[in-house]
Amino acid sequence: MAPPRAAFGVTPPGGRSLWPGGAGSTAPLEEASAPVASSLRAVFISDIHLGTPGCQADALLDFLKHHPSDTLYLVGDIVDGWQMRRRWFWPQSHNDVVQKLLRRARKGCRVVFVPGNHDEFARQFDGMHFGGIEVANEAVHTTADGRNLWVIHGDHFDGVIQCAKWLAHVGDWAYGVTLELNRHFNRIRHKLGMPYWSLSQYLKHKVKRAVSHVNDFERAVAAEARERGYHGVVCGHIHRPEMRTIDGTLYANDGDWVESLSALVEHQDGRLELVHWHPMGHGGLTLPLKEPQAVPGVLAPA
Ligand SMILES: [Mn+2]
């Protein structure tokens, strides 16, 4: 049973969507003196990748401050265990995020942690509670208007993205090496009088394939949710925020806090909205604005 498209307001990438009170907000403006925003029914965030330099912890802290909720779902890849095994990186702001999440749980927000592949060490704690945070390998969220949403990280669907898993592991390193190799390769080709072999065309071809793989992933996740009898699915993993209906099943991807800086929120009336965080209007934060990446999770770690 598909909810009508109009039931969820999608904020376009690049559009300002600070909530409440930002331009593009669909919520009525609160009085300027109102100290605390009214609570959202649920907030879904994933792919924070704490423990990596790419994690935009300050942006996330600002987002969390402005988006209180009754329930908070942490939809996997919150802490990057893969990276931390390689190199210890843990600045104060990453600590602040953990403290903020624990404090939120203490203050009565229901916090559900659905581990991802980068924090798969937590999967063994399925069903347990830590500091008020529930660990669940998968969850079901029922919206105010009665839709049952399957909440998963999504990495189990990597099979539909051929090679994505090893590519994710090799990540930036392989990309850098590819560029370097191409430079030497073309110098030799030049010496032999051979034409330049275009890396950009090669990558463009890769990008096209990557886009079709993202589509395969989205369709596979939605199909499985439908198979299991859910109205829709909320996931992360591929760092590509999206909300659309696929063959009658809602597919919602809350994005990430490395590049797209996005979250999925449920308003008190059950309306779902994809929120793209922007630093505008928040004094002091001067992070560069980034468009959602065209090729998430294939050339960069997912
Ligand atoms: Mn992941």
Automatic annotation (TrEMBL):
Q: What is this protein called?
A: UDP-2,3-diacylglucosamine diphosphatase
User: Quick check: keyword Signal in the entry?
Assistant: no
User: Source organism's superkingdom?
Assistant: Bacteria
Instruction: Please verify whether the record's keywords include Aminoacyl-tRNA synthetase.
Output: no
Stored SUPFAM superfamilies: Metallo-dependent phosphatases
Pfam families documented for this protein: Metallophos
Region annotated Disordered sits at 1-26
What is this enzyme's class at the first EC digit?
A: hydrolase
Q: Name one GO molecular function term.
A: hydrolase activity
Return the EC number: 3.6.1.54
